[in-house]
Write a sequence for this structure.
């Protein structure tokens, strides 16, 4: 079992910055990937950024150049640094963890979500 706890969400003005954190605990061995997804009201959940255990990253086109993702392997924590925030970034952000084991295959885990609101 893996538990994910997100923090760092809140209200920020356009052009501002925010950093989200996601801490993983429990059976955390075999982590393959951690990342962030977001969902605005009425919209589908969409990928924001991911980072693998080897450090490879992937970003949605809408956030490239503004967001960065990093991982602290020792603390099993992933961070999403969000700069130059826009109102369209407003959404609930969810932490995602992919656990890959030889015998059991791939398992996905999700956090409870944290609200990010960009508004004047």
């Amino acid at each position: 079992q893996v538990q994910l706890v997100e923090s760092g969400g809140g209200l920020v003005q356009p052009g501002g910055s925010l950093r989200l954190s996601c801490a993983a605990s429990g059976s955390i061995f075999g982590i393959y990937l951690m990342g962030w997804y977001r969902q605005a009201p009425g919209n589908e959940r969409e990928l924001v950024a991911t980072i693998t255990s080897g450090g490879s990253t992937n970003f949605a086109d809408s956030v490239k150049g503004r967001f960065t993702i990093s991982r602290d392997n020792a603390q099993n924590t992933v961070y999403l640094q969000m700069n130059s925030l826009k109102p369209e970034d407003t959404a609930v952000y969810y932490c995602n963890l992919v656990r890959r084991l030889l015998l059991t295959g791939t398992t996905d885990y999700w956090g409870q979500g944290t609200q990010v609101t960009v508004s004047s």
